[in-house]
Amino acid sequence: MENFQIKAPTMTLTTGPVAIYPRVQEALSRPVPYDYDPYFLELYEQVCRKAGQAMRWDEPALILQVEPAPAIEAAAASLISAKDTVLNVASGVYGKGFGYWAQRYCNRLTEVEVPYNQAIDPEQVAEALRANPDVTIVSAVHHDTPSGTLNPINEIGAVVKEHGALLLVDAVSSFGGMDIHPIDCSADIFITGPGKCLGGSPGLSVLAVSEAAWAHMEKNKDAPTASVLSLLDWKNAWRKEENFPFTPSVAEVVGLNAAFDQYFDEGPEVVWRRHALTARACRAGIKAMGLKLWPNPESIAAPSTTAVTIPEGLTSEQIISTARKIFGVTFSTGRMETYDKLIRIGHMGPVAEPIYAVSAVAAFGAAVRHHGISVNIGTGIEAAMAELPNGG
After folding, report:
1. How far is residue 59's CA from residue 51's CA, in Å, rounded to a whole number?
2. For the chain, which ranges sit under pLDDT 50?
3. Fold of 22-264
4. How far apart (Å, rounded) are the C-alpha atoms in residues 179 and 264?
5. Can you spell out the DSSP letters for 259-328?
């Protein structure tokens, strides 16, 4: 057997998949049940109800047996018909990416787009809807992770609701780490997953779907069925008496149950506060070292990610590899248009704790200094610590 030459990282501070909570790890190690055993059927319904409760949704949530990217594609395929005009809100790589899926299915696609270090102004959405009164579906990303930016999704949702369109929201990397829920943002399809702020394993997706969205899908003659891209196939799978369309990821469902238990036991507001505190401490340290944040203005920076502009003369590979080789700390690069422009430090799930912010500042500062950029790491650490209760 070939030996691995690369050691596992000491600390994973990426934007996902993230380190998972110990209770989730323990749940994943249990014996795998048969999917039609009464125990699992009962558990599956319980997890769907628990997911709905976590999202403050009146109905059980929909669980898709895929990670969130194909789940978002499935939402596009299921919801968007050849009669629909779609307004896609693009403030980053993932927001822009949804437009490519929407284009496959819709009658016409129009977009509102801003530079990828900025957020969408709700008035821009209102203007686009006034200019395109035939828009029936609007899609938006709450936290566009490759930029670390946060869109004002509640305000955008209010504009869309007033227009009368359906709203699809990607909340994959925000739900569980901040105060965001489908009803608050008037979402008709609200998509998230356990592999980010919930600190679970990354193989499932969790969706809240409104009655209006279900009705729209049922009228869509092109909505897929007998397909991994079908939402309709799984609509009633939460009921014990219903059959699964195909074998669910039973071990992942057991892990998801543990992730929601972790979230409820700690308390959502407590979880949100420590995500925000960790991000605030990290950003204070990064700025104190003389480095620049990517989001402009900083107020749109997400509490689950700190995106740092790469200093001139350096590459993402230099920073990433040095931080990992010397300190065992793994960060995330940018994606596509943001690649080699920024480095992302994740504050999600179990690493959304202030001590990880201090470690991130130290490792990041040392990595850039290793390549000739003058930074005062001690000043950065002191600034990060100063954000903590009683100054650390």
Report:
1. 9
2. none
3. Aspartate Aminotransferase; domain 2 (3.40.640)
4. 14
5. HHHHHHHH-HHHHHHHHHHHHHHHHHHHHHTT--BSSSSGGGB-TTEEEEEPPTT--HHHHHHHHHHHH-
The DSSP bridge partners found for residue 342 are 309
What tokens were used for 321? 């590899």
pLDDT of residue 108: 98
Q: Is the peptide bond before 17 cis (omega within 30 degrees of 0)?
A: yes
Contacts of 289 (CB under 8 A, 6+ apart): 361, 365, 375, 376, 377, 379, 380
Q: Do 11-17+268-391 and 22-264 fold alike per CATH?
A: no
- What type of residue is 143? H
CB 218 within 8 A of CB 232: yes
Q: Is 0.90 surpassed by the pTM of this model?
A: yes
What is the number of other CB atoms lying within 10 angstroms of the CB of residue 113? 16
- CATH fold of 11-17+268-391: Aspartate Aminotransferase, domain 1 (3.90.1150)
Q: ∠211-213-215 over CA atoms, to 5°?
A: 70
Radius of gyration of the chain (CA): 21
Centroid of chain to Cα 79: 21
In the block, tokens 């489908």 appear at: 182
Q: Which two tokens stand for residue 91?
A: 């403030």
Burial 334-359 (b: 16+ CB within 10 A, else e): bbeebeebbbbbbbbbebbbbebbbb
- Contact of 204 with 249, CB cutoff 8 Å: yes
Q: Decide: 202 and 20 in contact? Cβ < 8 Å.
A: no
pLDDT score, position 391? 64
Structure tokens at 183: 């009803």
- Sequence-separated (6 or more) residues with CB below 8 Å from residue 283: 293, 298, 301, 306
Kindly report, residue by residue over 151-206, the tens digit of the pLDDT.
999 999 999 999 999 999 999 999 999 999 999 999 999 999 999 999 999 999 99
What integer pLDDT is reported at residue 305 of this predicted model? 98
pLDDT of residue 390: 74
Domain boundaries, the chain: 11-17+268-391, 22-264
The closest of 215, 177, 188 to 86, measured between CA atoms, is 188
Q: How far apart are CA 167 and CA 125, in angstroms?
A: 12
